[in-house]
Amino acid sequence: QVELVESGGGLVQAGGSLRLSCAATGTIFSIHTMGWYRQAPGKQRELVANIPVVGGTNYADSVKGRFTISRDNAKNTVVLQMNSLKPEDSAVYYCHANYRRRINSGWQEVWGQGTLVTVSS
């Protein structure tokens, strides 16, 4: 069973920073894309940022220039560095990954349990 273990959420004042970490555990042959989504109360879950194994990054327009995503392929981890946080960044943040368990198996996806980020004004 593949799991994503998240850490790093919490309460911060506007303008502050938080660092979210996520580690994939279990039987994994390879991970294609790792990323972070968020869901605020009453809103749909949305992509914050992701990073494919082949390189490059994708960011939501609302976080460009403030958030940075990085990954360590050897450790199957992904980190989201969040700077200049705003109250509208408050949400539950979920780690996500597309992976294969074996070389000849299909791609599957897995979600973390979510970590709460609260930005006070």
Give your account of this protein's structure:
With 121 residues, the chain is mainly β. The chain is built from no helices and eleven strands. The protein has strands at residues 3-7, 10-13, 18-25, 30-39, 46-52, 58-59, 67-72, 77-82, 91-100, 108-111, 115-120. Strands 2, 4, 5, 6, 9, 10 and 11 form a seven-stranded mixed beta sheet that branches. Strands 1-3-8-7 form a four-stranded antiparallel beta sheet, with no helix packed on it. The chain starts with a strand and ends with a strand. 31% of the residues are buried.
Task: Label this structure with key terms.
121 residues; mainly beta; seven-stranded mixed β-sheet; four-stranded antiparallel β-sheet; 11 strands
Please count the beta strands (DSSP E, at least 2 residues each): 11
| Spatial gap, N to C terminus | 40 Å
> Strand count, sense and closure of the main sheet?
7 strands, mixed
Mean pLDDT: 96
Put the structure in a nutshell:
By secondary structure, the chain is mainly β. It contains no helices and eleven strands. It is 0% helix and 56% strand.
Layout of strands and helices, then pairs:
Layout: E1 3-7, E2 10-13, E3 18-25, E4 30-39, E5 46-52, E6 58-59, E7 67-72, E8 77-82, E9 91-100, E10 108-111, E11 115-120
Parallel strand pairs: 2-11
Antiparallel strand pairs: 1-3, 3-8, 4-5, 4-9, 5-6, 7-8, 9-10, 9-11
